[in-house]
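Reposting from the mailing list since nobody answered there.

I have sequence plus structure tokens for a pair of proteins and want to know whether others read the tokens the same way I do. The first protein:
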Amino acid sequence: MRAHGLVAGVDGLGVHDHVCWLADEDDDWLPAGIDFLAGGLRVRQRLVYVGPHAPDVLARRLAPLGDVDALRRGGRLAVHCIDELYDVTDVLVPEEQLAKYEAVNELAVAEGYDGLRVLADVTALVADPARRAEHARWELLADCYMVDKPFAAMCVYDRRVVGDDGLIDIACVHPAARAPEHVVPFRVFGTADGVAVHGEVDIFSADAFRRSLHRVPSRDGELVVDLSASNYLDHHAVAALVEWSHALAAREQRLVLRATTSGVRKVCHALELDTSDITFN
């Protein structure tokens, strides 16, 4: 399984990892971001840095990385103002955004790199509350892509701009996060055959959990939810899973719950939930 859970830094993140970094102050995340890019240099990934400034300004911020000009000239590092890669005027379309990154990643692989590593300060994309739901779906779609593609990302969001309530849905669809536990009590993230759930879901986080489940990308056949890394799922979480199973069945998908505890089955029985659309493993 890829790196997951609450983290203090970026050491050890590999070519498939995806971390959400919630910033508390101006540039408090930048040293970790530079370390994240340096890790990409060590594993021969092509680097991309996206932020809210002109490319030359962004490049100067990466000075501790080494000879940034040489990295840019050699094609090892690309630096972009956010409006070069995203439409900052409208709600993001996740599938279109993924297609853009997929093309860049495939080009990097074709040119001999071990994929792509993206450092993105994308607070501006979610400052407007109307944009956050589709942005959360984008983050989970991208995460599921990263499972078997050499693509790693560090996504930076400023808590002062967006607020903790506005960041819960976004942070909870990253496998790893540098964030307070109350903002990221659980994580839903991609696996080879579906998604995994890590952490705890209770009455306070159940609504966010339900929304995260409904953002999981569709796939043919069975969709597996691995519960082996979930510490606690109360009856609200179990009910959300059962509700989701019916929505999947309507799309001819079957939900498979892997590593299901006896507690989950007991809740289903006690609440008389219709589990006919679930396979328990």
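The second protein, same order (residues first, tokens after):
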Amino acid sequence: MTLPTAFFGHGSPLNTLAANRYSTAWSAYAATLPVPRAILAISAHWYVPGTRVGAAPRPPTIHDFNANFPPALFDFTYPARGDAELADRVAELLDPIEVERDATSWGLDHGAYCILAHLFPQAQIPVVELSIDRTKPASFHYDLASLLAPLRDEGVFIMSSGNVVHNLELADRTANREPYDWARRFDDVVLRLLAERDHAALVNYHRLGPDARLAVPTPDHYLPLLYTLGVQRSGEQVSTIVDGFDFRAGSMLSVSFAA
């Protein structure tokens, strides 16, 4: 069986504990999934030089956000096991790309557990996180992801997490305000290109005009989408898990690919 693959717009770390329409949609999506033997997570927040794969037997929960968040969020842990066999398999598939097995410097960051807390709240599935090499162009990440596609036939759920639109500088935390026009337009363009399977345009997102420059001022939160695209199979259709905006400048678009 080929498992689905998905990209999630994770938004604020507060979504880890929230009961809202995003977390409800993520939970509902999980109910449709076959139970995976393991999860490979690609998060916007492990954005470092080089390609690294988590190798800790018990990946620590990393509270990678500032002290202004509530104590309950710092108390949260996601106690999933690691999976050394999966880490080795990732390195094997990516050869000759050099892959560092990282058992000490990282674990599960909020880009991963914000979603996992609602997909698999019992933390019963082993999780391995894969870094995003910040020194490489978008095309590298798309091509690297394609090498991981066999994992989908090996019981591994490949999930990536970021935000298609992510401009913290222009975020407006005033309640109940509509997204910026440019944010909405870019989100709509991405949805259209996903439906059209125009991977080249999505990889070369910087060519999509001024809206793209505002929506993706830095690549870290956009690049996870390319990992999901890279493992998409011919004939698979995209479905929207949930869409919406936080703070006018953060897209919560989450999508899945399956036959």
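Reply #1 (J.P.):
I read it the same way you do. The two ends are 11 Å apart (CA to CA).
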